[in-house]
Amino acid sequence: MGFGSMRLTGDGVWGDPPDREEAKDVLRRAVELGVNLIDTADSYGPEVAERLIGEALAPYPDSLVVATKGGLVRGGPGDWSADCRPEHLKEACEGSLRRLRVDRIDLYQLHTVDSEVPLAESVGALAELREEGKVRHVGLSNVNVEQLAEARSIVPVVSVQNRYSLSDRGHEAVLEACEREGLGFVPWFPLAAGDAARGEGAVERVAREHDVSPVQLALAWLLARSPVMLPIPGTSSVEHLEENVAAAAIELEESELQALAA
Questions:
Q1: Of 161, 195, 251, 257, whose CB neighbour count within 10 A is largest?
Q2: Which of 44, 60, 108, 164 is catalytic?
Q3: What is the pTM of this model?
Q4: 164 is catalytic
């Protein structure tokens, strides 16, 4: 189970959280609970989440992978736009290195595909960062199967981060491609903004049988869905963090998995 840091920022993923120390407590507790991947991006805040991670956790334990992303820029709360020009990505990576307090980023991901920039140019910039030793591994986000194949012809890709959840399985083909190629699949929005918490039908029934919350059940379903799946639920609460991590211990029967996926 990973941890996504987007919710450690202010409203609209903009500015500081209400309590920076509390946000850092969440990060520290995640590591204590055995979370071994923390996902972030330079656009979260912007820059806020990366700074919090660097302040709370650097120097990082060897067991922890810190993954960040570049390629989205912010104009204000709730405002996101793409900038995947090679020069911007290289500048963004330098900023992430400083804020995360590292010499090399474990996993650097292209945050989106920019319709104004050929994908080969964007991925080529990440390949150069890898060759320079500033990036250990390259990942992608928000791509389709064809874009994944094109990127892999340029640089080794270890993971894909796409929107995916029990209630939103639109990227099933990408997940299947990751399974075939042995790539990590990191579902963002894994709880579909609270949809899981409402718990209806099979979700409510199976959750009740296991004496867990619908949110925990949705995470357990993701983990059971594929061996390459790595959910990154985010929260600003230590209590919710502990509940999310506990979902990894839930074991679902095949009949339950089929009922949930129906």
A1: 161
A2: 44
A3: 0.94
A4: no
